[in-house]
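#data-curation
PF: Archiving a pair of folding outputs for the training set. Convention for this channel: one message per protein, sequence first, structure tokens after, nothing in between. First:
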Amino acid sequence: MFAATTLNTISGLSGIAQIVSALAIAIGFYQIFFAARDSRIKYLRESRQYALTQAEKFAEEIIPKYAALDEIFQKNKISWPNKLTKTPLIGDINELRTKNVDIQKVINFISFNSNINAEINLLINKLESFAICFVGGVGDEKMIFSSVGGLFCTMVNKYHFYYLIIKDQSKDLGNGTFENTLALFNMWNGKLKKGDIENKMRELAKDLESVNVDEIKPVGTK
């Protein structure tokens, strides 16, 4: 009887041990899950805070410099080239010079004003620095797209010809130079186009609903 009791006790302890082990494993999985969740929340909070910081820099450093350059060109009555391509950094500056007179005028003006040339270089480098933060995933680009996305794309598009000059001079634009600017432009410009199309579709849907279409049924079918 003692032996039977001992076996039962051992069997019971073994069952309890299995339950305890199962609970320990479950607790371990829960701890890993919550740790991963907390880590994601932490990184998301930090990326959003970083995005806000970059948005402030964009407003305080980039916009004033862009506006100051605009004012200089306006005072000197320099006609700005129209948007030449949907994607910046693509094309050939020599070909564009022959097709657009305004481009050559702007290039000549910049060439004879080294200070302006330096200011434009500073602007596009600030845009590249800004883009790196979001292309690299450090900042949450979705959070500030609505506030600065359109203006960022406008700036990059406006100085499209200047990027082509750099491309012509460096011959390696496709191998790293301003690649973050191009990547962020393509992403945000795509979002802007999608938004425009969706707005047009909503307007068309409203117009479609407002159209009354009457039918005349053949005699005897009413």
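PF: Second:
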Amino acid sequence: MKTNSTTLAYRVTGDTGNFKILNRTSDTFNPETTTVQDDDINDSRQLSDDRLVGLDAAGTVEFQLRADTYDIFLAAAMATTAVTTGGDPDPTVDTYKIGKEQPSFEIIKTFNFPDGTVKHAYFEGMQVDTFNITVPTRDKITGSIGFVGTTVDLDYDASGITFDAAPTQPVIDGSNNIGTVSIEGVTGAVVKQFSIDFNNNLEAVYALDSQTAVEQDLGEATAEGSAELRFSPVTYDLYKSTITNAEVAISFGIVDDNGITYDFSLPRCKLSSDLPSGSKGDTLNQTYTITPLYHDVSGSSVIVTKTTPAA
């Protein structure tokens, strides 16, 4: 079976509209089973039973970043809804801050077989647990989304359902689509890579008389970043802030070919790193782990601001 004969589509739980096909480079949507074995002592020396006691819905999506396409999942990863201001004739500004909302999704993975057979796997109550964006040097900006949910139906009847085509916005890359990268107290640093991860730390709730989770509870909202910098006198001074446990502010921006911008602001961060080492002739680089902290003024450890130019 060809890999391009599968599609993945979603809609928000409770929505009765069309499913939207999602751009992706790969996915791993699968039911996950839990079994228990019979522990009775017997003279055959062999296992007598293996019982299914749990069935969980889970999946991951790997993607190339495009404007608009993954906004709904970024919002879910931050457990929030964007606050929108402006609009024609002014740019539209959407602001995302970490919150306590729990949107969920219905997801259908469709398999189109060469003989014309079509099968649908349906995943219900899917919530975004993790979300990542990685900004590399001279390559496409990529990301991943981790989902957990409640139920799976491998014999789903998709009759009457309409699937909207996948978006066609241009892919964003690390050479042509980067705005300002700012690290407080550092001027002139060469940034080689940047990434940011969100984690809702969802916890499945199980109950008697059910093989599946009855719901997912929000855990601690954590975010973590990573930055690889070329080692230099200015990054040496930045490294000293890791020893004193000083706070720094970090921000970076992404702008697509149509002028849509995403600005990530981390107003309070702690950094950790090691002094670099290498062999003869090596270029020395440093990787910093970035831990965002709650910011009293904004109410969020990470603020994402999307600006869409007026039509």
